[in-house]
Fold this protein.
Amino acid sequence: MSRKREHLYYIDFLRIVSCIAVMVAHAHLEFVDRCYWSVLMFTLISGAMMLGRKELDIKKLYSKNILRIFTAFLIWSFIYAVTSHVIFPVMDGEPVRIKLMITSIVEGHFHLWYCYMLIGLYIVSPCIKAMLECEEKYGLYLMAVAFVFSILIPSFQNIKVLEWTKSVTDSIGLSGLRFLFYYILGYYIIKYDFTDLQRRIVYIAGVLSAVIYFCFPGGTFMYVWESGFVSGLFVAARYLTVIGNDRVKKTFYILGDAVFLTYLMHDMFNMIFKRFFSDHITKWYDLNLFLFTCILSFSFSLFIKYILKMVHKTDKDILIK
């Protein structure tokens, strides 16, 4: 009988905080640079959970993991497309744009790009997993290549004198490995234990990176500081998150489980708020938008999760009878 993995509550914590950061960014676009780390954290967590498994069954990967993400993408892409190009135009007395709606379903709402990216990482996961099991140093090599070509070199290329080198590195074709770096990094952080000295170094680097990252958003070496902050936060959460209260554990578990659905639906509440309250823009507008979206997104996600759970339970009862 296979044993279930111990539930990692610090992962729930990181998911919740990252999801809130996404909503902050979308409520106030000036915070996008300061909150983009949240998407990278999601990627790091996905790598830790997927590559950290003892076994990676390709059939299960496609029939469960990839199918789940693709189905969720189609459902919410359809909802956003119909809302934007059918419901809102009808409410405004404008013509329905069917062609644009179909295009929007395929492309997805602006934040749904993450689903496509994650599916791509899942597709190559069996190859990465096999490589790590064969020789883990190859994983470190791939991470190093990804870091140099997608994080370090692009940072230097933000310097005006070196902008001309972008055409050279783009031709090499390794500049798109940024998310792969975080995906594999998650595996190493969650699998190996850090010594006290290593943890102190990571904490110090993480704090320094966070200070520079948040104080100077959009800076030349933003990608580098971003990687230091994300790595430091993950390691800190792993070793410093201690939850003794069962109610807090349950709350983290429930909210963490609802994060993906919350991420998918949150911009719908942004759209609704902006449509009905755009004539009342005050200095508190962005805060009200964030609170409205955050509270309702999590609430509706939990409600939908509860309904699905009840339906699943009913189906199992019927089968037993």
